[in-house]
Design goal:
- This protein is α/β, with parallel strands linked by helices.
- It folds into 3 domains: about 60 residues; about 230 residues, Rossmann fold (3-Layer(aba) Sandwich), CATH 3.40.50; about 150 residues, Tetratricopeptide repeat domain (Serine Threonine Protein Phosphatase 5, Tetratricopeptide repeat, Alpha Horseshoe).
- Helices cover about 45% and strands about 10% of the residues.
- The chain is built from 17 helices and 12 strands.
- Helix 16 packs antiparallel against helix 17.
- The termini are far apart.
- The chain binds S-adenosylmethionine.
């Protein structure tokens, strides 16, 4: 139940929000909070912001009202196969181990995507299982996606996504597991859709583990990019409940930016190539050997022994069905010259009112909602205030591509490359666009640039603006496709 807020005004409203849904709004996010509350006020039937906040401060919100409010205050940003190294750890190590442990007993696997937003994470998990378990029909698979935002869940249940949800995901994923509906929309195939169920759950409800909502004895829990918006107090309570919802030896996965050895001290951190996952266990994971920390997150203080998978081969062979690569959407790389740029960025930083990360989050939020024009406007404003923000040029190019404005998208990527000629994702995207346009010679140039730049990266180096793609993985995407198209 909500406690009566001690504060008044926006500070008081923040207390109400924290008490009812865990979310923490520091003062530097109050502009955004005010904007979102103003939109929510209209749905609650209030014309004036002050009347709405007064009402929020003076009433005990009901569950349905919290859900509505949540749909305005939460960030629903998500996409398929987010943070590739996590999915590699899953398909190469964790699932094979789990399958081997369970194959002679009850063949069941239970996975929970807590804070699943519009469902891309839950379906990615289903795809990972489908690729890893050869006799999947003999298994009882439960993949549960839960979220507090009812609008996000409606989209999740539809299983229909625009190209935006496939940004940064491997090319085979859309080709093998989705059906093109036209108009740039793709529907997840029934064999994957049937593996996933969705339900509404507020993580602050203290309603798990519980048999009544089927949240107990999970083998794996993904709770990524959710707790980062919560207060420390809620993170501690919820992570305790998540811990108790796992089977012994079960896995708990947060995003790489949420890793924190103190917050999640009840778990053991296990280091995989490019990713750290938490395990509920005191024992050593049998197929891994203890080695010093390596790779990703060197600075991360890891509790207890750091273990890493054996580098040679996993104990159990991984079944990966043949993948159907999409025609490599790589295009020509013209090294960007000053003349290529329609607008030359000024080499000077104008004062920024909000950090670029916050602006970029908002832009993604808008794009995620399908509000591409608004996203583009905000992106342009962001670039205006920080003309060196490579990420924003890159993000703008994705939005422009989505809007079908390819030449503008190309110009935006070239601006990013102008700022950093070694910007690998920029060359990659230009290569992709050239391929889509059938300009093979140009595609070859851009992709060759990518190969050259990758040759000076460590295998597990995460490429900037790639949302977790490692250099090695990028190579695996590009090489076969370049060979196929005789671009090498
Ligand atoms: C940024 S999305 C993360 C989606 C996905 N896990 C990923 O990493 O791609 C965060 C989601 O957490 C949900 N969320 C926030 N607070 C919540 C709460 N108290 N209970 C349940 N879900 C919550 C939001 O509705 C939103 O859909």
């Amino acid at each position: 139940m909500n406690q009566k807020p001690k504060e008044t005004g926006l500070a008081g409203v923040c207390e109400v929000i924290t008490a009812s849904m865990g979310l923490h709004f520091p003062v530097d996010r109050w502009n955004m909070l005010t904007r979102n509350l103003t939109m929510a006020a209209a749905e609650f039937g209030f014309q004036h912001f002050d009347e709405f906040t007064h009402w929020l401060l003076s009433s005990d919100l009901e569950k349905e009202q919290i859900k509505i409010l949540a749909s305005y205050l939460t960030i629903s940003e998500t996409y398929f196969w987010r943070e590739e190294p996590v999915f590699s750890a899953l398909t190469n190590y964790i699932l094979p181990e789990l399958i081997a442990l369970k194959k002679n007993g009850e063949k069941s696997i239970r996975i929970w995507s807590a804070g699943c937003s519009t469902g891309e994470e839950a379906y990615s998990l289903a795809i990972a299982l489908h690729r890893t378990i050869p006799d999947i029909k003999d298994w009882q698979i439960m993949i549960l996606g839960t979220d507090m935002n009812p609008k996000a869940l409606i989209k999740a249940e539809s299983g229909i996504y625009s190209r935006w949800s496939f940004r940064n995901c491997p090319v085979w994923l859309k080709a093998n597991y989705f059906h093109h509906l036209g108009n740039g929309n793709y529907e997840v195939l029934p064999k994957i859709k049937n593996m996933v169920t969705f339900s509404n759950l507020n993580l602050t409800d203290n309603s798990f583990p519980s048999l009544t909502n089927n949240i107990y004895a999970m083998d794996i829990i993904f709770c990524r990019n959710v707790l980062m918006y919560f207060t420390d107090e809620w993170i501690s309570k919820i992570s305790q409940n998540l811990f108790h919802s796992l089977n012994p030896d079960g896995w708990f996965v947060v995003s790489s930016c949420e890793l924190n050895s103190q917050r999640f001290s009840q778990f053991r951190a296990v280091n995989f190539p490019g990713a750290v996952l938490y395990q509920k266990s005191d024992k050593k994971f049998k197929s891994f050997k203890v080695v010093p920390a390596f790779g990703y997150n060197h600075d991360l203080p890891l509790p207890g022994p750091v273990v890493r998978p054996e580098t040679s081969e996993t104990k159990y062979p991984v079944f990966i069905p043949e993948i159907l690569p999409e025609p490599v959407q790589v295009s020509s790389i013209l090294w960007a010259t000053e003349n290529d740029l329609t607008v030359k960025p000024e080499p000077e930083v104008v004062s920024v009112t909000e950090p670029i990360e916050a602006i970029s989050l908002k832009i993604r939020f808008l794009a995620n909602k399908g509000d591409l024009s608004e996203a583009l406007l905000l992106c342009n404003e962001g670039i205006e205030s920080d003309k060196l923000a490579i990420g924003l040029y890159f993000l703008r190019s994705s939005i422009l591509q989505e809007l079908g404005q390819t030449s503008e998208a190309v110009a935006s990527v070239k601006q990013a490359i102008y700022l950093d000629p070694d910007f690998i994702m920029g060359h990659f995207v230009l290569g992709n666009i050239s391929l889509q346009e059938g300009k093979l010679r140009q595609a070859k140039k851009y992709l060759t640039n990518v190969l050259d730049l990758l040759s000076s990266c460590a295998d597990d180096e995460i490429l900037p603006e790639s949302e977790g793609l490692s250099a090695k993985y990028m190579l695996e995407i590009i090489l076969p496709n370049m060979q196929k198209l005789t671009l090498l």
